[in-house]
């Protein structure tokens, strides 16, 4: 066995391990000191609708019939300004997406790029895209008010599924932060594209956007 072959197999093993790790994070629910109860969602909904500032960290997995990718995700939101950093396991480095409602910019090792929408910019430069314009609502368990939607509830009245703009959103798990129940695991599908978002750390009301 040549050293090049050994290195190649090692990289394949590490990539597989990272995919398995992401899958484990996506299926293992965190232990919660509190439990959700009927009426909790209705009580907190006005606070969620007013929530426009947060820091969230976790992982995102993208799967198509031909490929699958996973990455770490750090998201800081303050009103209409946001910074989303995505770093993948394939040596793609860090991609930082910034927007303020008027301009969207992506910065990575290849330079700085701009496009009219975050979805278009991510698709051009990263090869895949999240529906960020609507995700700012979906990540709170809310529908995007700019288009029609349909929802279903779980046994305690929290959102279970949502269909909007061609996407099917499945809320698989919840976590509590600063008195608010927020989605921890979201599975979103659009045709043959499947995106799994796992948020391991929520910090509502906190944002540092230098």
Automatic annotation (TrEMBL):
Cellular component aspect of the GO annotation: cell outer membrane
Keywords: Cell outer membrane, Chaperone, Lipoprotein, Membrane, Palmitate, Protein transport, Signal, Transport
Keyword rRNA processing: no
Signal peptide: 1-28
CDD domains in alphabetical order: LolB
GO biological process, one term: lipoprotein localization to outer membrane
Location within or outside the cell: Cell outer membrane
Pfam family, one: LolB
Domain of life, per lineage: Bacteria
Predominant localisation class: membrane
Membrane-protein topology: Lipid-anchor
Subunit structure: Monomer.
Role, per record: Plays a critical role in the incorporation of lipoproteins in the outer membrane after they are released by the LolA protein.
NCBIfam families registered for this protein in UniProt: lolB
The name this protein goes by in its record: Outer-membrane lipoprotein LolB
Gene behind the chain: lolB
